[in-house]
Structure prediction request, 143 residues.
Amino acid sequence: MAVYGYARVSTDGQSLSAQLIELKAAKCTKIFQEKISGVRSDRKQLTRLMTVLAKGDVLVVTRLDRLARSTRDLLNLLGTIAEKGADFKSLRDTWADTTTAHGRLMLTARTLAGLGSWCCLAYQVTVAGICVAALLKIGEIHT
Prediction:
């Protein structure tokens, strides 16, 4: 079992030092680090980390926003980590910790809440679309 850290800052003007100190204190044996915007999908160090991550390993970040650029991105990464049989831990977002039963429950609850919000939005958009289509059909809206 290895404990890997991942540290990221968005620009060259920012420093990784605070994250590196926290990750070393969390007993990370190897820390993958990069200076690249979280919006970029070609984060080479994150790709390397996900490649070496194996069953029983733990991926540690200081904060969720250092790992993922959106909720969807976070869910995809957490899914990949789980598929590898590894765990995930955020030092500052203490509820996001799959090494504990409580953390797994919290991540599941937040994921379901996020999916619930998405389903609600999808429903609202669908209803709005049906209403617009009906108005177009009866000539209430002119294109």
About this structure: The beta strands are 3-9, 30-35, 58-61, 87-90. Residues 3-99 form a domain with the Rossmann fold fold (CATH 3.40.50.1390). The radius of gyration is 20 Å. Residues 101-138 form the longest helix (38 residues).
